[in-house]
Write a structure and sequence with these properties.
The protein is of the alpha+beta class. It has a single domain, classed as Thiolase/Chalcone synthase (Peroxisomal Thiolase, Chain A, domain 1, 3-Layer(aba) Sandwich), CATH 3.40.47. Strands 1, 2, 3, 4, 5, 6, 7 and 8 form an eight-stranded mixed β-sheet that branches. Strand 1 and strand 2 form a beta hairpin. GO terms for molecular function: acyltransferase activity. This is 3-oxoacyl-ACP synthase. InterPro entries: Thiolase-like (IPR016039).
Length: 205
């Protein structure tokens, strides 16, 4: 008999708020992203010293993943067989602009290695994997808009081929002042069917 998979939990970060499974965890009147995400991380006990040195895309992805994976109560100090499939439309554009600005002025030429390291969108996957000891498949896709069908196909493939016990999937987009994260965890246990329609419904929640 084929295994069936479910969405066990999901997280949204948008409009200056963080929610888990549709329940509001944190909200703030702060509009500016850097101040908002710092306040959210402190309030939600995101204990990771390197968090504050990350670029904005990585902070956004890391915070959403941290909320989900802490809720999953993963074993401490052991490897976790969780794959990661993320996507967005802006890639690492916000950080790319920052880095470009550091090399545009010939009289103030200072290419920063600490900025350059984040000029790939999949770097956020590395940060998540380090914190939660995830040692499985991962990939980052760029789409014009949220693509539930593609995420579903890839997650199903990994799970059915036993490439991972669980898959962390979603959309993490940051561009200038606009940001949005929607991550969800797929596994055998759960009450929400893992299907493109259900994924789209949760995304629009």
């Amino acid at each position: 008999m084929d295994k069936t998979f479910h969405i066990s939990s999901y997280c949204h970060i948008k409009n200056n708020s963080v929610s888990l499974d549709g329940k509001l965890l944190f909200t703030s009147p702060i509009q500016e992203f850097t101040a908002f995400v710092k306040s959210a991380a402190q309030q939600l006990h995101t204990n990771y010293a390197k968090f504050y040195k990350m670029d904005n895309l990585s902070k956004l992805a890391f915070l959403a993943a941290d909320v989900l994976l802490k809720n999953a109560e993963l074993p401490v100090d052991t490897e976790n067989d969780i794959a990661i499939i993320l996507s967005n439309k802006a890639s690492s554009l916000g950080t790319d602009r920052t880095y470009q600005a550091s090399i545009d002025d010939p009289d103030n030429f200072f290419p920063s290695p600490s900025v350059f390291v984040y000029t790939l969108p999949n770097i956020c996957i590395g940060e998540i994997s380090i914190k939660h000891q995830l040692h499985s498949e991962n990939c980052f896709f760029i789409f014009d808009s949220f693509n539930a069908d593609h995420l579903w196909t890839n997650a199903q493939s990994l799970l059915k081929r036993n490439k991972a016990e669980k898959v962390l999937c979603g959309w993490v987009d940051f561009d200038d002042k606009n940001y949005e994260a929607f991550l969800y965890l797929v596994e055998e246990n759960g009450i929400i069917a893992h299907s493109p329609n259900e994924i789209k419904k949760l995304y629009r929640t």
